[in-house]
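Fold this sequence, please.
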Amino acid sequence: MQEYQTEQEKFWAGEFGHEYIKRNDGDETLANKTAFFAKIISCIPGGDIHSCIELGANIGLNLIALRRLLPELEVAAVEINAEAAARCAEIPGARVYNHSLFDFSSDETYDLSFISGVLIHINPDNLTEVYDLLYRQSKRYILISEYYNPVPVEVNYRGFSDRLFKRDFAGEFMDRFPDVRLLDYGFQYHRDKNFPMDDVNWFLMEKAKA
């Protein structure tokens, strides 16, 4: 049996993670994500990315949405839940690693590394490990898309404690890596008339050119 460093990893690798798959699937969800990523890609000059990796990809809907916008995009993913990773691996050409983010290591880098709706579920004591991984995997662009709060807070999550945390993830990331600059940011509202999402803030950043 796989051993994990934190209770949050066990939570997402197990039955709750399986149930999450069922709640977050379908054509409407994919359409909303495609519109969401269209906004973000438009902030990259010429949409100039050819490869990406998602940390915590679940079944890969974000990657599918990106492929709709950039059909030649090379995609990779790290996903802790085995069932979700298997679904994600159905994306043609995708490289999918069924690992905890704390166990994953690769010398490969990508034009874009990103994380969406995952940092909020990481034990706060381990956040810097994920920040470091996100930074290492990027050649140039980095995207963080999460719930935002100016100060760290814990929020009850579907009846569970110690499973959802909000803070200024992007601000902490840029403080940790001074060579990273903010390109753009935005907010997707759950009452958007066309493409509602779950009140997420996104921050697109760029590493300083060598």
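The first strand starts at residue 51 and ends at 55. Helices lie at 7-13, 15-23, 27-41, 61-69, 82-88, 127-136, 169-176.
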